[in-house]
Amino acid sequence: MRAANAHSSLTVAKEPSMDTPQISEAIQKGVNTFMETVPTLIKALDEVVKNKQFVSVVVTAFKAAYAIERGRKNDKRVLTIYNEMKEMMAVLVRLNGVSDPGHDGLTIKERMEELCRDAADEIQCCANVCDAYLKKSIFTRIIPAKRDSWDGQLLRFVRVFAERRYKFESALATHVNADAAHLKLANDNARAAELTRRVNVTSQLLQEYATAQEKELDARATRMGGDALLADKQAMKMLSRDAVVENEQAIDGLAAHAQPGTKPGPESRRAPQGRPFDLAELQQEIRRDPGEAIKINAEFFNRKFGLQRRQIEEDFVAAVNREGDRIITAVTAGPHGKIDDPDIRNIWKEMGWRGSVKSRHFVMALKDHYHIENVVEESDHPNKADSWAVEYISIGRARTIMEAFDDDASGFVTVKEVNGFTQSKSRPTGWSLPHWIAYWATGWQMTSTTYCEKIEEIFDAMIRLAHEVLPENRSNVYYYVGETWSCVTAFAQSIKRETGTEELRAKFEPHVAAEEARLRRAFEDLNYRIDDPTTLRVIAGEGRIEMTLLPMFYLAMKRDLEKISLARKHVLSEDELDESLDTIYSIANAALTRIEGLRSIFEQQSLEVKHQFEIFAKGLYKISSANGLTFDGEKLRGLPNPIPCRDEIIPDPDSVPLSVLNHPLGRAHKIDFAAYDPPEHMEGTYPMLGVYYGFIYENGEPTDPMFKLTFTAGEGEHTPIATGWHYRDFQYMSYKATGNWSAPSEGGKIPVELNLTYSAEWAYTELEGVFDPEENSIRGTMVMPDCESSGEFVFKRDPDFVRFYPAPSAINARTRWNFATTTIRDRVRRRSFPYILERSRDKERYMELVIRNDHYGRDLSDDEEDELQDLLSDLCEADAQFYHSLIEIHLSKTIIFHQIRCDSCDSTPGGSRIVCIDPDCRNEETSVNLCSEPECINSTVTFEEADRQAHLPNHGMFKVHRMIFDRDTAIIGNLAQDALDSARESMSQNKKGRKSKPKCAHCKNTVSLPCWRCVECTDERFICDDCEHKQLAFDATHTKMHTIVRVTVKGKKRKHTVEERMQVLEREFAKVRETLANLVAKSTEGLQGEPLTKGDLQAAAIGLSEPAGSEGKAGSEGKAGSEGESGSEGKAESDGDSGSEREPESEGEPESEGPESVGEPESEGPESVGEPESEGPESEGPESEGEPESEGEPGSVGEPELVGEHESDGERESEGEHESEGEPESEGDDWE
What we know:
Residues 1-21, 256-275, 1106-1232 are annotated as: Disordered. Residues 393-428 form the EF-hand domain. Keywords: Coiled coil. Residues 1055-1082 form a coiled coil. By secondary structure, this protein is of the alpha+beta class. The protein has 37 helices and 17 strands. The strands form 3 sheets. It has an 8-stranded antiparallel β-barrel. It has a 6-stranded antiparallel beta sheet with strand order 13-12-14-17-15-16. The protein has a two-stranded antiparallel sheet with strand order 1-2. It is flat, with a radius of gyration of 37 Å. It starts with a helix and ends in a 10-residue tail after the last helix. 35% of the residues are buried. Mean pLDDT is 76; it is low at 1-16, 241-277, 324-332 and 1107-1232.
């Protein structure tokens, strides 16, 4: 009742006499205080629901709309409409003072129940309109025509809610005032006038609430022509340069993701860097009617709204139950009286804390309460059965306990946060407070470790299945797996893992299973689709994203694994995995938003940010906070070996229902022989129905291949329609032609108007002309307003006749003669065999040029572009349709490596990919990638980075004919290096006559350098360069799934210059400074950081001893992912937070010779620049004194290891024996 009285100011109906300034002031005040006043209103409405259950339907709808709106950036235009909704709901607070029955004998329930149901539907409808509006780009709000349409959709609810509020007041008045049944609340005319003023004021406010960016763009758009701006493609692009296409459902938080995202196909897929300016998508969005957009949005929004309502209803029931069990302390008892849990209430009272306390002080007091006072061990304590949990409320676990209570990471724990933790709806019924604290102290880390392992298994299963899916699905599956791996692994490989004991995990299993079931149910209600942050909040619930991050990744990927399994048997829609990837992006984006919030808090507290992320949430954000979602080469090489999946987790496609798919099945690729089928006869009143062929001309030349239009009657005889496919602007896309024709003129000609719209092109084409029954043709002019382009067109029935027909504007005696002679010669030539051969060659050449121009391979030269244009002009529509069906099949069978570019020719590799494994030419980010063109394989690649050496043709390289993912790149590189070393060893043995000379596995000729060796075949399988280039060596044993390595002469080592050595020293000194800074920060922060231990100093010493640029092989133990595992799993002090941290594992660490010092001389004495190279295998003769070997000398084929990375004397002597005795001196030499 107090809440109702406190909110009485909201319940007073506006007087009809309010003038325009008063209305404006009241609305603006309501908008500015909306987020602050609604919680008070909701509390008052909850009190009403307890007594008047029939209003729960509208109250729940209002709370759901508020919850969704609260989860995004507040838009004042939307809040203006929500303020009207709030004013309507405020009337219901007065229901607490209503008596039953009314003066007419009806109860308030009978009078208002239906009104409440209608109001709930209106609230849901309004929330959907606002949701659709907020998803529109900024351009929708600055183009006057579209802005006015959307404003009209919003303003409609001002009237709706005002009318509903009036009906509520009328119903209440019947029960409050005896004379109210005979009186009206206000004069109808006055009320209507006020409503009109209110709508006008709101309309004006919608314009005033535009952002500064919108106002600036609006002014520029007005100067450019307002609505006419849509017709100016260049102006739209110019306007977009300073405008970000903001969309709350976009994954703009993934800006740190550096890996390029391109769609496997001719069109550009949305890149993870955010939403690029896509003119086609923008045009489609602007042209779409608001009503249609709202209807499309409602299909998914209603699911989300229903899920939010259900969760609110469940929370309300749980809150009522808790209210009955809660012990209410007198208000005069002090701040501790507001705390629900009795144990924490006593601690708060004894310590004399006020509204908040420092996190570390709170945790220490909590520990003392349970340990020193030993309260749980008392025989009458209700939590005695959970005395085991007290062991985990310790100093070693203090960090994780602080994070659990301190929800905003401010360093302070408030009364609200304490109650939020102890009364959390995720806390299992029956769990004591020590049990609940123990879960967050150690159980969450163990649970996260389990999910990380499950995620790795799913990735392994996805990669296995990716090579087995149908060709039509392959590129989409590859793209999904690659992008998802990068997003998820940034978190899964970052967290410090702890397995724990089985007994301990069993104590937390009920909560883990219940939370997973809750998330799964929410995902299923929304078909595993997350379209914006508000949807994610509905699924995840309140609280920190790290609580549900890994389980959500796991559940989403588990469903996607089922889709990929189906892709082995069915052709999926291209949108299927695109939508799944959006869900992964949305989850990752929420984590990145959390990271930015934490970063601001750490900086405000003057903490060392990098160190804080290394320890916060057990390091969950360590990688992503530093590098976004990017994995450079060094981090990839440091990842542990992936966990192989068990066979039982791979779904059988026959057992997976098609209901897991959100889109209809796709179209299987097949050769389109139907392109040459004769046209069907079209029946109709007008003679122009049927098939036409022709060209659109610009400047007297055809712009694209021949059109084929098949006209059928639309809704009426005067509205023809035509659909089909057409190759335009180097894209093969579907089109739709709609229009109308008028009555015949006196000459019998029929005026025709047509509009052509394309699936992948926002510019549309307008055709205006006439149908001539005598010529049986349609001709006229073409206008492309979006491109300021114009031309002319001619469509005729006979494709052979129109094939060489000149543009109407170019017709004269000469062009007519050329047309006649060319047509006759062409018909005669068609009967000859050379013509058939020529058409076959043209087809092959056309397909080659289109593939290189649109998909992969070297860019076309100017001559080749002209050649392609000539081929296009001679191409009939049937040929284009047939050829592109062949191209589609070819692409589905070809692996296209969209994520990389050839470092030599800058093309997109297709069919195969080559990666250099020589350590000298790779940097910390990436290795050298090449396509399979011989000139690229044998090229020298230089780089702009001063400290990066050139890639040389004799470097070790491996080649794959399959997709390899970032996860496996380092592993394959290590295996290829081992195979290369083995092949070079064989060369040495062959030269000495100890082994027979190797022969090519295909042509059986003796191989010469350079050649290839299979990495995976059990026998030593060599392949000559020619057979490999022609792909002749594949058989049942050696398949395209195998990796091969290029065997070349091992080049001579080159000494590094003084500048290069200085760069190494600078990197080492930077590493020393960083390590010391971390140690200082850790030792001075106390409980705010991790306790400084002996293990920290040992780890720092090991890190300093590793020379810059050195990497362990992928999968070696002791790397990320294995460090930090508890030596005694499940013990209270064993997770690395305690003072007695375990010793670091020795596996994978440097051996006993001791760390090599940077810049330390080799065992034979220091090297001086300009002095002869000391005794070693690489020196084939003394160098000239005082003349250091330059980087660019032709003889400097190889690169030396950096200082600090040299081998021991014995290793160099052994290697020298091989190099000096067994290896050929130059590439291409025969084994002789």
